[in-house]
Amino acid sequence: xxxIKFLVMxxxxxxxxxxxxxxxxxxxxxxAAQVNAEIYNIVGTxxxxxxWAADDEIGISVTSxxxxxxxxxxxxxxxxxxxxSSSPIYFQDLQEVTFNAYYxxxxxxxxxxxxxxxxxxxxxxxxxxxxxxxxxxxxxxxAPAVNFKTSGDEAGTSFQHCMSQLTFEFKAxxxxxxxxxLTQYTIKSLNMAGTFDTETGVAEANTTAPExxxxxxxxxxxxxxxxxxxxxxxxxxxxxxxxxxxEITFAGQTYKxxxxxxxxxxxxxxxxxxLKYTVxxxxxxxxxxxxxxxxxxxxxxxxxxxxx
Length: 308
Prior knowledge:
By secondary structure, the protein is mainly beta.
């Protein structure tokens, strides 16, 4: 009888141990991070808005300590599956994990150095310099969705623009019937060299080895009035006297203007902000309207005047 009792007790202990293991490990199979991403406070495509495009690539890193690790892991977007990776990050235990991410993906990660040209401002090339960063998304093995998303009206953990944007709206004014003779505009003497740190999300102009250059844009056959030119992306930076210059060619004549940077952006080209200036072309010169902030975060600035 004693032998029977011991056998029953041993069997019961085995059952209880198995139950205990089941409750401690909810999911002991491989669970990969599932990435969802939004872009904060914009409209349109990724260089101007909230829509990801097919084959967009982001780099994701684990920033918390623990068994789950991953640095600069590439995730690629498609409209059916969202962001996926051929070598995804797998959770190694039940601990919560924190993630950061950046766009566009760079094979070596670290800091990207770039000198911007007018060619970089084309529709095909501009997304490559629209550096963005997202931080602080959390997930775990039991809740594996890594959500880089907005929180109501706030940025939350969503992707945010790290560069500065500049937009011009041109209008026909006094003595001008239309904009068909508007053939060129030039943004004068800004620093086009800079860096983007993929680990911190900081984009900034290179003040140690600046490259002060003009951006020249040719126009033809403008039928709209007013006409809004494609937005330009530059590195965040300050300028001498908190101003910058533009030149406009209309009917063979060159018009010049000095534009003030608004106090709303601390009198500089600020990360995440779009400065929009309205330029009215008059027979006798230009009138520069207040700059306003919209889109990314569009800012209103001060009036300026132009001379031929």
